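Translate structure to sequence.
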């Protein structure tokens, strides 16, 4: 058990969910500290029935802290993680800053839990769109070795933070009222619209969000021969990312076999009955920690291809849940070692 833990970015949207999950899952600790920016320092948080004062994040914050879970902007993570490591604190980091560092494991507990053994004080949690994709890939990869993935994402506005959600709500109201609204999170209107760009231009016409899915998938599976072709799209949905996935395997996997593999895999919920109109939708998956799979069918354009629909709560499994699960892995690993 880690006697003293801290939540960095405790007042943010993901930070609030991390706090909620630590309560719900009865995460073991003796002392907990809540850290945030100078702007939020001094505010109070109620956790397990007790009030806690939020402390300002400083280089001295990690003295006596054994484990920190961080959900902060990349530049903040770049700064605070070395402070924590210097104090002997292990960090589970939600930001994108450390993910591709070769010394930092990138972990999804259902996919590569063994990677935590190699940590040097920091463990990263992947991008939300990558996380649900690799969970969906894992049972198929184990059964037939995936060689290629073509994925299109339908990403909710919550992925762009509070301002993204505000843009959808207020922008929709303005569109219906035929009035003006100045968008803050998005360059173009998201109300009644799709924006086929998430992140900046990165590589030969692909965006930074798309290349994260490529590079993070390679790192998580420790296999850079898996070909990944992503297209990331922002859609007018409040929460939960959706993805269409076309997966090609070395060994043929039938639809019936895929259904059984998905149904028996931890962290996946199968909803797949087209005849009765049963399949995952964001409005039904909101607030759940699972990765939902449906619309499973053979790819008509390749011999060993399967295509399916995948939905997951990007704030939970795509962020907060995965980070807490990594922390639970660390607790279990420490208990086993002792």
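Result:
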């Amino acid at each position: 058990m880690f006697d003293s833990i801290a939540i960095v970015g405790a007042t943010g949207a993901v930070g609030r969910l991390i706090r909620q999950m630590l309560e719900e899952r009865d995460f073991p600790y003796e002392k907990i500290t809540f850290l945030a920016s100078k702007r939020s320092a001094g505010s109070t948080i109620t956790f397990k029935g007790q009030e806690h004062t939020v402390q300002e994040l400083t280089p001295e914050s990690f003295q006596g802290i054994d484990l920190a879970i961080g959900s902060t902007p990349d530049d903040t993570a770049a700064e605070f993680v070395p402070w924590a490591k210097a104090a002997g604190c292990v960090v589970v980091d939600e930001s994108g800053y450390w993910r591709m560092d070769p010394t930092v494991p990138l972990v999804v507990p259902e996919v590569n839990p063994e990677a935590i053994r190699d940590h040097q004080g920091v463990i990263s949690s992947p991008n939300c769109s990558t996380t649900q994709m690799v969970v969906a890939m894992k049972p198929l990869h184990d059964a037939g070795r995936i060689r290629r993935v073509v994925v299109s994402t339908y990403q909710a506005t919550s992925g762009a933070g509070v301002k993204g959600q505000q843009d959808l709500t207020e922008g929709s109201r303005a569109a219906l009222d035929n009035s003006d609204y100045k968008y803050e999170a998005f360059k173009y209107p998201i109300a009644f619209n799709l924006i086929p760009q998430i992140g900046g231009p990165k590589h030969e016409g692909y965006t930074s969000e798309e290349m994260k899915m490529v590079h993070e998938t390679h790192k998580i599976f420790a296999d850079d021969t898996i070909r990944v072709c992503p297209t990331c799209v922002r859609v007018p949905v409040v929460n939960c990312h959706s993805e269409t996935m076309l997966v090609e395997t070395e060994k043929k996997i039938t639809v019936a076999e895929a259904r059984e593999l998905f149904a028996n895999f931890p962290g996946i919920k199968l909803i797949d009955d087209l005849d009765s109109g049963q399949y995952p939708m964001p409005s039904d998956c909101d607030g759940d920690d699972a990765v939902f799979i449906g619309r499973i069918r053979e790819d008509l354009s390749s011999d060993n291809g399967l295509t399916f629909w995948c939905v997951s709560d990007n704030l939970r499994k795509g962020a907060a849940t995965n980070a807490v699960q990594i922390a639970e892995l660390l607790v279990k690993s420490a208990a086993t070692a002792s």
